[in-house]
Structure formats: C-alpha cells, structure tokens
Amino acid sequence: MNLALAPESLARWQFGITTVYHFLFVPLTISLAAITAGLETAWVRTGKEKYFHATKFWGKLFLINIAMGVVTGIVQEFQFGMNWSDYSRFVGDVFGAPLAMEALLAFFFESTFIGLWIFGWDKLPKKIHCACIWIVSLGTVLSSYFILAANSWMQHPVGYTIDKATGKAQLTDIWAVLTQNTTLVVVFHTLTAAFLTGGAFVIGIASFHLWRAKRATLRGERLSEKRTQQIGAMRSSLRVGLVIAVIAGLGTAISGDQLGKVMFEQQPMKMAAAEALWETQAPAPFSVFAVGDVGEGHNSVELEVPGLLSFLSHSNFTDAVPGINDIARQEAAAYGGEPEDYIPSIFMTFWGFRLMIGFGMTSFAAGLIGLWTTRRKRWLDPAFRTGEYEVPRLMLTKKREMSPLFTTWSWRIGILTMGFPLIANSFGWIFTEMGRQPWVVYGLMKTSDAVSPGVGQTEVLISLGVFTLLYGVLAVVEIRLLAKYAKAGPDTDEKPPAKDPRLRLPSGGPGGGAADAEADADADKPLTFAY
Amino acid sequence: MSPDLHDIWFVLIAFLWTGYFFLEGFDFGIGVLTKLLARDRTERRVLINTIGPVWDGNEVWLITAAGATFAAFPDWYATLFSGFYLPLLAVLVCLILRGVAFEYRHKRPEERWQRNWENAIFWCSLLPAFLWGALFANLVRGVPIGSDKNYTGGLMDLVSPYAVLGGVMTLVLFTFHGAVFAALKTTGDIRVRARRLAGVLGLATVAVALPFLVWTQAHSGNGRSLVAMVIAVLALAVALVMNRRGREGWAFALSGVTVAAAVAMLFLALFPDVMPSSLDPRWSLTAANAASSPYTLKIMTWVAVIMAPLIMAYQAWTYWVFRKRIGTQHIPEPSAH
C-alpha cells in the first residue's frame, strides 16, 4: 500500500488538521472570555456606557469565535475512539480521567453559563449577569488545564504502572498526573500564549478602526458623533490590548524558557531536533538557520550563536547538550529497531520551533512598541497630546512624532499583529507533537501502534475529506462574519438595560405572587436578544 | 454483596445517556418542528428561541457521556467509536453545522443566508435523531466483534430492519417530545397547533415504539427491561391524555419519562454486556472486562458524586430563569445583533 495513503498517515493528517483548526479558536475563546468579563466588570462598577459598548462589541466577536471552538471540540473527543482505538484502549485508564473531569468541571460551566449570558441581559441582575461570564471564563481555563494535563501525560507519563495481565497503562496516582511539572509549565505557557493571542486580536481590530479614522481626518472628512464615540472605545481597547500583549508576551517567553528546560530533560530528542543539533556538543550553539541533510545525519548549511543552547538548557554556557545521533542510538538500544526510527521530522521541528518563537516574539515586540508610542499624555509635550476621543499620535520621544511613512506602516503592522500569535500557536503545537514522534505516549507507545485496526483506508479518506471541506467552508464563513462585525465597530447607540431585574427564587412559585404582576406589565415586550 | 464499581459506572453511563436523550431529545424535536410546525420565519424563530439559551448545555451531556465512557470503560469507548465510524462522522458533521447554525443564522439579514442555516437546523436535527436510535439498536442487538475486542463488520452490518425501526422510533419520539415542549414553552397560535400536532405525533410514536420495544424485549430482554418497557408505554399513554387535556407541564414530564424509560430499557437489556458480539458471546464486551481499574473508577466516582448534583442544580436554574413562554410578539425585528 502507498505509505502516504496508509490509514495511519491519513489518521495523522486528520488529527493534525482538526486539532490545529480547533486551536485557532481555543486561545481566542480563553482570552476574549476574560477580556469581555473584565470590561463588563468595569461597566458594572463604574456605570460608564463606553464599557457597556465595549463589552457588547468584544462579546459579539467572542461569541462568533466560541461557536466554532465548541463544535470543533466535539470532534476532538470522538476522534480518539474513532481513529485511535488502540491508543484509547491502552491509555483510557489514565487519559480518560482528565477528559471526563474536563467535561464535568469545565464544559458544563461554559455551555450553561454562556446561554445565561447571551440571553440573560434583561433577565438577570447586572452583577449576576457579570458573574456568568466570569464562570464561562473559569470554565475555559479549567478546560485548558485538564486537557493539557492529559497531553502532558503523553509527553511525559507519570503516576501509572503497566498492568502485567493486559499490558495496558493503569493509573496509580492522579495527583501526579494533575500536578507534574510538565503539566504546570505547559498550562502556564499555553494560557500566557492564549492571552497574547487575545491581546493581539484586540490590537489588530482597534488599530484598524483608529487608522481608518485617522485616514478619514487626513482626507479632511468630519467624523460623525457615532464615529467619535467609537474612536473613544477603540482607543481604550487598544491600550487594553497592548498591556495584555506585553504582560502575556513576557509570560510566554518566561514559561517557554522553562518548558524548554523541562523538555531538554524529559524529551532530549525533541529539543535536539528543534536545534538540528546532530552531534552532542559542549558548549552547544544555538542555531539561527540550518539546512539539514537527514540522510547524512548533519547540516549542509548553518549559522550559529556559540554556547547559547547550553545556556537555554542548563543556564550556563559550557554544559554539553546531547545530539540527535547519540539520542537515536540510545533509544534504538533501549526500545529496539534502527536509530533512524527514532528521529522525528527535523525540518518540521526545526522550522516549527523557529516560527513559534519568531511570530510569538514579534507580537510581543509590537505590543511593546505600541505601548511606548501611544503612552499617556503626561509623558508628552502638550503640543502633541490627543484627547480621549481622538486617534493617538505615535510618539517616538517627548516632542518627536513618527514620520508619516512610519506611522502608516506602524498602524498596518498593528492590524497584521492580529494574525501573528495564531501562526505561532499552530507551529508550537506542530513542533511539540511532531517532535515527540515516533511516540504517541513518550517511551510507552508508538503512533503506528495506536491507530484503529478496524478502520480502513476508505473510511479515513472519507472523514478526512469531509472534515477538510467542512472546516474550509466554515473558515470562510466565520472569517467573513468576524470581519463584518469587527468593521462595524461598537454600536454606541445601544442603551444598557434600563432597570436591574430582580432575581426571584423558585420558592415564589411559578405564575404566582405579587412580584409576577409587575412582570406581567411588560409581558409582550420583545426579547432584548433572540436567535 | 455490595455492587462492583464497574456496575455503578454502568448505571452512571446509562444515566448520562438518558439525560442526554431527555434534553437533546426535545432540542432535536424542535429542530424538526421548524419545518413541520412553524409557518413562517417568525414562528421558526419562536421555536428556536425556546431552546436558545439551553441547547448547548444539553449537548454537553453527550460530551460527558463519551468522556466518562472513555475514562470508565476504555474498551467500550474504543470499540464503539471505531466500530460505528461513518455514522458517528455523520453525527459529528450534523452537530457542527447545527451548533454554528443556531449562533450564526441571525447574524446576517440576507434571505439566502438565513434559509441555508434554517435548512441546516432541520436536517442536522433530523439526522442525528434517527442515527442515535439506529446506533443504540445495533448496540443492544449485538454487532460483529472479534476476539481482540475490535469491530470486524462494515457499514452494511449496521443496517437492518431492526436498526432502521430503532432510528425511526427515536426520530418520532424526539419530535413528539419536542412538540410537547413547544406547547409548554410557547404562547399564542403556535402553542395551540403544537398541542394538536403533539397528539398526532404521540400516536405515531405509539405505532413505532411498541413494535421496536417489543422486538427488543423478545430478542434481548429480561425482567427488569420489561418493567422499564411497561413504564415507557404507560407514560406515553398518559402523556397523550395530558396533552389532550391541555395539561402541558404534565404532558412534558411524561414524554420525558417515556424517553428516559425507553433508554433505560435499552441499557437494562444490555447489562451485564456493554457491547455484545454477534459472532461469539465469549467475545462480548462486558461491564467487567471493558472497565478501568478500581482506582480510576473510585476517583471518577468522587468527581461525579460531587459535580453531578451541582450541574443539575445550575442547569435547572437556567430553565427557571428562562421559564417565560415565547410568542411571535416577543421576537425582535431581524436586525443585526
């Protein structure tokens, strides 16, 4: 059989496509839930309408996004059993537990309270309504924690034994699975990256609005009252996005460094592959650029920073870092087979690692530059200060504004920043999953042994085709819808709910009591929100 | 003798599926009724909005049933999901389109956009409502499973008169359940028509449910499943009477009991197997041989015991918050939200 069309390869493609696609929505959902919750809290506490409008605006984009995240998540859960049944049999005792916990602790929170939040604007007291979105946000964070605990177990299995009778993994210590350092560091890294993604998303859309308004004023157009209001909302949003991107970007870098050190210990092959470090070296250099010759087991072209890799793995510039060839020989000796069976795709891991860091740090840098150039007015000469409802000038120093050309490009890059973390996230996962190959559970089970034996080539071809087509169409639909609502901007004419509804408990009895008489007065009023 | 943990987990899995079919049963029914009952777009929106705030929470019962099966019975999960590959693919596609349809339908004013998503809501409610019944019929009756616990059949092994009847039964039963729900949750003309349609659908349910349940009882039944079957049939009869008398709350409670008792009957007929093999009874997956270790089951029991009552409480509260009936007068102008 053609190897590229073997059920295992097809199942891997399907898992890769559906997972990377799902993870485009996940980080945005995590961060936008929290950002929306923060904005609604600001509205509840201050009563300022601009926060209400911002909550509604970012909340709308959040809902368009979470719809896709939720439905593509169902595929993830079914897929283990559908395409990886031997994997499921082998790991179910350990891996199933965090998955079931995710459903019981996180998914019910998210799905139930999102319904209350969407439809409850005029049914719940403000504070309860705000609490609902915070519970959704908690749900998204819990969800990421449990699923990352499960994934970390595949990267670094702990708290288990192999049952002698069945040969399957058996859980012996759930606490170890939930609190091992791999889990904790990965959760830290993924959540900070999620907030970097959300921060960049906000920066991009706010930059779009501000730059559009700036160009309009440069053309001499007078902005309507509504546009002016929107500028105010977008100016505040831009600052929020920049601050989030900088803090989260810093967190992503710190957690990424920690995760790298953990991986040097737990999966040296992945990190050697990330650097295309073929031979063990002391001190080991950090590769900036390399073209590998996998057949020969060395690089044909390379550009390196001496000693830096030793520093990244061991915090000093001298220690040895094991190379691909040595590790492959060790693994072949330990698990059988040829050394080359244990080498992951060097091309994908090497470039995936670089694209992850490159795009992640570009977003961080964009946040940092943006934060400086749009800084508060007391740091600027009075001649250059702009009001709360004006597009900020991009200031290099106290009295020096960016040249028009640089201003144009800065705003454009601000808009593009929206996409950078999405690319970084995707390559981060491609790197970490492909870098673990040939293992599905590191050291315990190979990917080739994990696939469903009863599911044939035709079936996987059908599902791969169906998912690719469906996801492609939905991507177009989703992006166009997001663009429409992002471009429209906040609806500054919308009024917040006039009165704070009282929450009555079921003890009042359905249809009875004096309180219901009051409710009957506006019984025929249209719903404030309806599908 | 105290019951084994894996028997308790069999009951819990059955409970999760029962909850799922009770809740998403009427969701699917509402989806089908958007073409069967609603006369225009406003009425379709009335129906969709009766489940608007709750459908997502209802669907999580499925995610939890699947996740809990993975954790408590890995072999059951593995054989079931890889064996029923293509039908489950169809279910997934439907659940994806249906979920997106609810959220996106109203987000653009164009006629074609709204019509397409409305078609998605109808077909992607109808198809899973049928497929789940067909899949559970196969599950109870037994499918070709080899000595290595893997499904050895193909797609056509899942197609039989019994499976088709099972599918038709869940489709009609869920639509009836949905009509009773619509009568309970709407007001005005549509409420009257929902009640009338529920009467017809209830009789149709009797016509397909009786032969299917009797067939199930004859082929795989036992004393306990017989009791559940009797409860299902009685509840269905009383639900019809209550619906005719306009006691909508009671009618809904009893259509719910019908769904729950029918699902319970299937699980009782299944036990102690979880997936009987049609090739050799020795190769059947049982609650004992498909289960996880006692340690895992013990942890999961704790999590379930703490979380399940909390989940049911806040989901019930959601239904309370949105208890008000919806009529065409409540549907806002189709403006962009």
Strand content of chain B: under 5%
Measured between the Cα atoms of the first and last residue of chain A, the distance is 50 Å
Side by side, the strands of the main sheet of chain B go 1-2
Helix content of chain B: over 70%
Shape of chain A: globular
Distance between the termini of chain B: 59 Å
Class derived from helix and strand content of chain B? mainly alpha
Strand arrangement within the widest β-sheet of chain A reads 1-2
- What's the tally of helices of chain A? 15
What oligomeric state do the depicted chains represent? heterodimer
Name the average pLDDT of chain B. Answer: 95
How many β strands of chain A by DSSP? 6
Rg from alpha-carbon coordinates of chain B: 20 Å
Strand residues, percent of chain A: 5-15%
- Which two protein chains have the largest interface (Cβ within 8 Å of the partner's Cβ), and how many residues from each? A-B, 80 and 81 residues
Pattern of helices and strands of chain A: HHHHEEHHHHEEHHHHHEEHH
Average pLDDT across residues of chain A?
90
The total of helices of chain B stands at: 11
Question: What is the makeup of the main sheet of chain A?
Answer: 2 strands, antiparallel
Low-confidence stretches of chain B: none
3D architecture notes:
The complex is a heterodimer of chains A (531) and B (337). Chain A has 531 residues and is mainly alpha-helical. Chain A is 66% helix and 5% strand. Chain A has helices at 7-46, 49-83, 85-119, 126-155, 174-179, 181-218, 225-266, 268-275, 308-314, 324-335, 346-373, 404-416, 420-434, 457-488, 515-521, and strands at 160-162, 169-171, 286-293, 298-305, 439-441, 445-446. In chain A, α3 (85-119) packs antiparallel against α4 (126-155) and α8 (268-275) crosses α11 (346-373). Chain A is globular and about 75 Å long. The relative contact order of chain A is 0.13. Chain B contains 11 helices and 2 strands; from the N terminus they run ααααααααααββα. The longest helix of chain B has 32 residues, at 5-36. Chain B is globular. The model of chain B has no long low-confidence stretch (mean pLDDT 95). Chain B is mainly α. Chain B is 75% helix and 1% strand. At the A-B interface, α2, α3 and α14 of A face α2, α3, α4, α5 and α11 of B.
